[in-house]
Specification:
The complex is a heterodimer of chains A (127) and B (375). Chain A is built from four helices and nine strands; from the N terminus they run E-E-E-H-E-E-E-E-E-H-H-E-H. Chain A is an alpha+beta fold and 127 residues long. Chain A has one domain: OB fold (Dihydrolipoamide Acetyltransferase, E2P) (Beta Barrel), CATH 2.40.50. The relative contact order of chain A is 0.27. Chain B is built from eight helices and 19 strands. The N and C termini of chain B lie far apart (55 Å). The chains are: A alpha+beta (127), B alpha+beta (375).
Chain lengths: 127, 375
């Protein structure tokens, strides 16, 4: 069984966010990477761009297909994980850790209340 | 609430479940798309050996004194060139020249031909052949019977540079003597099998047609004996990346009812000199006037992966569409096939693929993208 960190919040589109202070790190869940299979390409926004909760901010591609990334939370992108351009397979091996996608400065921190807890996310994917 | 699956299953479906395969709806069939990793499965076939369940493929058999005449009337290639135990790639065309399907024609005997056809086209293919075997009064035009025999066969493909050694372990007949696109009727592990040296991966290997009841035991044996060669069970995901590197057409992508053989680069399977066949007039006309679009290979230059249906731009103007695209695990690049006007389809020319509203640079390259070195 996959281990979903309790301090992350999750979306039904299978992204996670870890909020620390006014910053959130965003990634895709272990369930997402497992469903996608071998990930070979990641398209991320530029630093300085803004993302809006529920809207697409990039895409990940597996050998088979392309999938949109949906922003779990609104904010301004302060960092992107450059290492994924060269090593997208990290998204398969460590989706909750090394393979975070972007970091954002939150513009609406209260949006986090609309996200799922680890327990709720787990029930959702097992549903 | 559990949805009731209306998808068809092959006799090996339980094996796929036990192996933890992810399955998808492939033309109405619940088929494994991957067992472990498409990239790993792809690599196993290029470097070692992979095992595929392709029992969803259809079989149609044509028997009788005029079997050859009927086969030659409904297919594009010249079946008269075949000897017993030989197979050829061929096409079934509509009267307007577009593809009904692409198929393999095996000559079992002078009066018995065995056709292997695409899973999702099999019903339509059978109806097409039967229709063209009759005259306008519903009378037989040929002394030949057309039989739909898909239910009599499971099909297992063993593909890769070690396939020969592996299958030989289970087989008395000297398999090295079976040349490419030839077959023998024999036995594998004691199970009656049509053993064909054919495949859809660009590697050496065999396609084994066996009784459905024997297929699970044979599958298990091949996996067991194959361990020594690093075998992996492979799904449709790897089958697709392998065939794309080899630039083999896939029905519904490179070819369909709107595409004529000359456009798809398939003149080599059209033998207009053999006499009349369904679609011949339209193909001849197309050959004389020339094609305006041509199936063309490309490699991405910019970052991005082309996918089926993406528009292709030449000098910033829409010029064609991607039929198949994706990463090439063997080459480490992103490749694809597309239709383009013939005057644009020049090797080395720069084009762009419209990827999610962004034009991304690509370059026209020769196909196949990958060709194995003959040993």
């Amino acid at each position: 069984m996959s281990n979903y960190p309790a301090n992350f919040r999750y979306t039904k589109e299978h992204e996670w966010v870890l909020v620390e202070g006014d910053t959130g790190a965003v990634g895709i869940t272990d369930h997402a990477q497992s469903e996608l299979g071998d990930i070979v390409y990641v398209d991320l926004p530029q630093v300085g761009s803004t993302m809006t909760q529920g809207e697409t901010f990039g895409s990940v591609e597996s050998v088979k297909a392309v999938s949109d990334l949906y922003a779990p939370i609104s904010g301004e992108v302060t960092a992107i994980n450059d290492s994924l351009a060269k090593s997208p397979e990290k998204l398969n091996s460590d989706p909750h850790g090394e393979a975070w996608l972007v970091k954002v400065k939150l513009t609406h921190p209260d949006e986090i209340q609309h996200l799922l807890s680890a327990e709720d996310y787990q029930s959702y994917i097992e549903g | 609430m559990a949805a009731v699956s209306t998808l068809q299953r092959t006799p090996l479906f339980e094996r796929h479940q036990a192996l933890g395969a992810k399955t998808i709806d492939f033309g109405g069939w619940d088929m494994p798309v991957q067992y472990s990793s498409i990239l790993e499965e792809h690599k196993a076939v290029r470097e070692r050996v992979g095992l595929f369940d392709v029992s969803h493929m259809g079989e149609i058999e044509i028997d009788g004194p005029e079997a050859l005449a009927l086969v030659n009337y409904v297919t594009t290639n010249d079946a008269a060139k075949l000897k017993d135990g030989q197979a050829q790639y061929s096409g079934l065309l509509y009267a307007h020249g577009g593809f009904v399907d692409d198929i393999l024609v095996h000559r079992v005997r002078e009066d018995h031909y065995f056709l292997c056809v695409n899973a999702s086209n099999q019903d339509k293919d059978f109806a097409h052949i039967v229709t063209h075997s009759l005259d306008s009064h519903g009378r037989r035009r040929f002394q030949a019977a057309v039989t739909f025999t898909s239910a009599n066969y499971a099909q297992i493909a063993v593909q890769g540079p070690r396939a020969l050694e592996l299958v030989q372990q289970l087989c008395d007949a000297p398999l090295a003597d079976i040349r490419y696109y030839h077959f023998v009727d024999g036995a594998v592990a004691g199970f009656a099998a049509r053993i064909a040296r054919t495949g859809y991966t660009g590697e050496d290997g065999f396609e084994l047609y066996v009784k459905p009841a024997d297929s699970s035991a044979l599958w298990d044996l091949l996996l067991e004996k194959g361990k020594a060669y690093g075998i992996l069970p492979c799904g449709l995901g790897a089958r697709n990346t392998l065939r794309l590197e080899s630039a083999y057409p896939l029905y519904g992508h490179e070819i369909d009812a709107s595409i004529l053989p000359p456009e798809a680069g398939l003149n080599w399977i059209v033998k207009t000199a053999k006499g009349n066949f369904v679609g011949r007039d339209q193909v001849v006309e197309k050959l004389e006037e020339g094609v305006w679009r041509k199936l063309t290979g490309f490699e991405m230059v910019g970052r991005g992966i082309a996918r089926d249906g993406y528009p292709v731009l030449a000098d910033g103007v829409a010029a064609g569409w991607v039929t198949s695209g994706g990463p090439s695990p063997t080459l480490g690049t992103n490749i694809g096939l597309c239709y383009l006007p013939e005057e644009i389809a020049e090797e080395g020319r720069s084009i762009a693929i419209q990827i999610r509203n962004q034009p991304v640079e690509a370059r026209i390259v020769k196909t196949p993208f990958y060709k194995r070195e003959k040993s």
